[in-house]
Amino acid sequence: MHRKKKTMKVLILAGLSDAKLQSKIQPILNNPKITRIFLVRKTPLVTSSPKLINYCTPIFLRRYTPMVEFYRFVTALKICFLHRPAFVIGFYFFMHGFYSILLGKITGIKSVVLFLGTDLFWNIARSEHKTKWSKIISQADFIGVRGENGKSWLVDEGVPAEKIFIPANVYDFSKIPSLPRQEKYDFVCVAGLNQEKRLDILLEALSYVQKQTSGKVTLALVGDGPKRPELEEQTKALGLQENVIFAGYQKDIFSWLAQSRIFIMTSRQEGLPVALIEALSVGLPAIVPDIGDISTLAQNKKNSLLVPALDVTGFAEAMIKLLHDEKLYAKLSQKAYQIRQEKAQEYSPEYIAKQWEQIFEKAGFKCRNT
Question: What pTM value is reported for the model?
Answer without folding.
Answer: 0.88
